[in-house]
Every structure is written in C-alpha cells, then in structure tokens.
Amino acid sequence: MEYKDYIVRGVAASGQIRCFAITSRNLAEEARERHQTSPVMTAALGRLLSGGAMMGAMMKEKSDLLTLQIQCDGPAGGLTVTADAFGHVKGYPANPVVSLPASPAGKLDVGRAVGSGVLTVIRDIGMKEPYSGQVQLVSGEIAEDLTYYFAVSEQTPSSVALGVLMNKNNTVAQAGGYMIQLMPDTSEDVIAVLEERLSRMEPVTTMLQNGHTPESMLEEILTGMDVEFSEERILASFSCNCSKERMEKALVSLGSAELDRIIADGESIEMNCHFCNSHYRFSLEELSRIRGALS
Q1: Measured CA angle at 91 (ends 24, 159), to 5 deg
Q2: Which of 102, 205, 228, 258 is most buried when burial is the number of CB atoms within 10 A of its CB?
Q3: Which residues does residue 159 pair with via DSSP β-bridges, in sequence order?
C-alpha cells in the first residue's frame, strides 16, 4: 500500500482544545534526498518541516504563507521552512552536513547542532505588512522552541511534539508530530488531565513505529475528551514553485550592467534554488536573449 503524508485537525473538550497531527516520512525523506543532509540535519529539517506544515494548516486563505526561520550559532548555521494552508511545504538548512556524537540519551543531538539563536515566524496573510513574531531558542530541539513561541508570541498555551527516526542506512524510517493548543476558556480540570496525559506519552516516532496514525496519536492523548476531527485530511508534500522562468525573472532583475558583466565572462551560468536544490543552467545564447530584451 502506498504511504501518504497527511495532516489532521480537530477539536476536543467541547472546543476547549484544538489539535493537529502529521505523519511526514516522505516529506522528511525527500528533503534528505534533495539536500543530502547528514542524519542530525535530516532530523532538524524534518522536525521543522513537520511543524511548519501543521502551522500552515492553521491558515485559511489560498494565498496565505507561513515562514519559519531559525538563525543560530550551532554548526547547523540556520534553517528556513515555508508552508501554505494546503500541506505544501519546503525548506533548507544553511549547512546540510553536520557530524556530532549522539546526545547523552543516545539520540541525534539536534539541540547541539542548532545551538543558541532565535526563531522567527512570519505569517503573510494578505495584510499591508506580514505578521512577524520572534523568540529566543530555548533548546534548539525545535518542538520546545515552537512551544515557547506559541506561549510568548501568540499567548496560546501549547504542547508541540516532533520527531524523525532514521534507518541504519540513514534514510528516514518515521517522521511526524502533533500540536495540542488550549483555548482561552479551557477549564483547570481539562488542563490538569491533559498535562498528566502528555507527561506519559511515548515519543512521536515510537508511536508511529508502533503503528499509530495522526488520528490515533491524538485520540490517545485526548481520550475521554470527545475529540472531533475535521472531515478534510490535508495531504502534505515537499513542494517548491521554482522554475527556469522564475530564475529568468531573477536574472532580469539584475539589470543590464550586471548581465553585460556575466556575458563578458564568456561562460554559461547555473542558478540554484535554496529550497529544493534544483539547478537551472543558462547558456550564453539565453543570457544574450535576456539581455537583449532589456534594450
């Protein structure tokens, strides 16, 4: 049976809780293949892609766009992910290859790879200026950093869990996560039950490896809270809208003088998309045509 990545959305406890969950193995594996990431960077990028996809699902309009940027002092150098409301997500690491010993718990040490820094969340929802919120990284493990962002920047108490499990051949075995968010009127009784339940949940990748789906992960966390899922499941995929035509527009934006300089070098050039690592070559003839159109 073909495996598909998808996101589910739901509410529980009579609307006092909203929840999201994702399974994203293909998404994380495609990112690994495109960027040739080392295991710890596959985990870091896979987590941010999964988190970004769920946060994108919180948006409503076709044109809405979410960007997550991590600027950090660890060897990862930084990470960038963008997502829309329909499960289309893409991202890239500043440094795709980082080699580190395992953490004291024997896990991929994403926190050490990322180090200290800031997380910036930008929501472009068609207003005059995009909404932007920024927080300090609290651990570099990404899930904890997103949890902190929601609490500080959006005043929404949340629990975010993300995970990427690698095979021995360094491909992705499992990836996914969930977000549980409390609405302003959530009762203390519901909060107490939820905190106790979350404290004993297995890691996301353990649950996925044991056969859990996004729905059953949320059902286990929210047992007895009458969780109701949206009828729509959002398929998630690594999706980039770059093209040779877009790259040509970027060349046009350089202006006549810069294009003259490039052509004077007498060689074709190659342009690269950071997000999907696609390469686009422009011959001297193509460059001359682009330059001629500016005359």
Answers
A1: 55
A2: 205
A3: 180
Mind listing the pLDDT tens digit for each residue in 208-226? 999 999 999 999 999 999 9
Would you say the pTM of this structure is higher than 0.70? yes
Residue 70 one-letter amino acid: I
Q: Are 86 and 99 in contact (CB under 8 A)?
A: no
Question: Cα separation of 202 and 193, whole Å?
Answer: 16
Quick: pLDDT tens for 98-149.
999 988 888 999 999 999 999 999 998 777 788 899 999 999 999 999 999 9
Check if the beta carbon of residue 287 is closer than 8 Å to that of residue 265.
no
124, 120, 141: which is closest to 70 by C-alpha?
120
H or E stretch covering 152:
helix 143-153
- List own/partner pairs for 95-101 with CB under 8 A and 24 or more apart: 95/41, 96/35, 96/36, 96/37, 96/38, 96/41, 97/36, 97/37, 97/38, 97/41, 98/38, 98/40, 98/41, 99/38, 99/40, 100/40, 100/75
